[in-house]
Amino acid sequence: MTDKTSAPLTGAEPPLIAAGEARTWVLFEDERLLVLNKPGWVVCHPSKNGPWSSLAGAARLEFQLDAVRLVYRLDRETSGVILLAKTQAMGGRLQKAMGRRAVGKLYVAVLEGEMRGPRFVEEPLGPDPSANVTVKQCVTTVNAQEAVTRFTPLAARGGYTLAAVEPLTGRKHQIRAHAEWSGHRVVGDKLYGPDPGLYLEYAEQGWTARHAALLPLPRQALHCAQIDLRPAGMEQVFRAPWPADLAKFCTEHMQLDTFAVERLITAAIAEMSPVPSAPAGPGR
Questions:
Q1: Cα 154 → chain centroid
Q2: What average pLDDT does range 104-112 have in this prediction?
Q3: How much is the pTM?
Q4: Residues 6+ apart with CB under 8 A from 266
Q5: Bridge partners of residue 165, in order along the sequence
Q6: According to the model, what pLDDT value does residue 14 have?
């Protein structure tokens, strides 16, 4: 099977998911829940290109499910843990838990620059009126929503920072927008990176020489490393391993191999403040 993270994707439309491929992403499965390790090239929601063009569509066919319910979404270029509920009851329970912030979320990002200490960003986010695309967010007080993100540097060297990131609210592009505002953009970000025009250019032309000159990675270096359901009254904690493309970047640019990164992530998880557990409820 071709490694689709080994080279820049050619354009706006990601490649189709091959039959059997989604099974290699399984982190956990039971009669109520399917947990996958999403690669950084897969779209979550169904698209016009058919069921095999999205995580939700491929999961429904691959696992022969009547329906799947995405508990939350990850951007196409964000990899890591994604939860799909198999039942309406489980979907409702987990989405309510997300709404009351009773799910622990830890992302790991590679950021531009060397962040020397933790950053607690408590800045509201809303649509960016200066952007040429409607999805871009920015720190603003106009049509804004509360947004809180904690950045904790795990290693800073070679002009980059490996950071644990806890989004304490769930706003669109929250981590990426707060990283840009803090002066430490997510490496490889086409929308919040050095030139937001790269986003539309990629959508229209695919990966160009200008992308290669301005972006050291073909996708944004953002990974959902862990989802903790214990605060929601469940027992499971799901962790996705550090992906190969980001591992290669850290080895080459930060002299951090995969084992070193995983040790740093494990230490960061151990130091995270536990969220009080909610009483268990029905999930079927």
A1: 18
A2: 97
A3: 0.92
A4: none
A5: 107, 151
A6: 76
Alpha-helix runs per DSSP H in the chain: 55-62, 88-99, 174-182, 197-205, 209-214, 244-254, 258-271
Q: Which two tokens stand for residue 114?
A: 């060397």
Q: How far is the C-alpha of 106 from the C-alpha of 78, rounded, in Å?
A: 13
Which of 3, 30, 75, 128 is an active site residue? 75
pLDDT for residue 111 is more than 50: yes
Q: What is the pLDDT of residues 43-90, one digit of tens each?
A: 998 888 899 999 999 999 999 999 899 999 999 999 999 999 999 999
Could you give the domains of the chain?
A: 22-271 (3.30.2350.10)
Q: Report how far residue 163's alpha carbon sits from residue 112's, in angstroms, rounded to the nearest whole number.
A: 10
Residue 148, C-beta contacts closer than 8 angstroms, at least 6 positions apart? 120, 121, 122, 167, 168, 169
Say whether 3 is catalytic: no
Residues 93, 82 contacting (CB under 8 angstroms): no
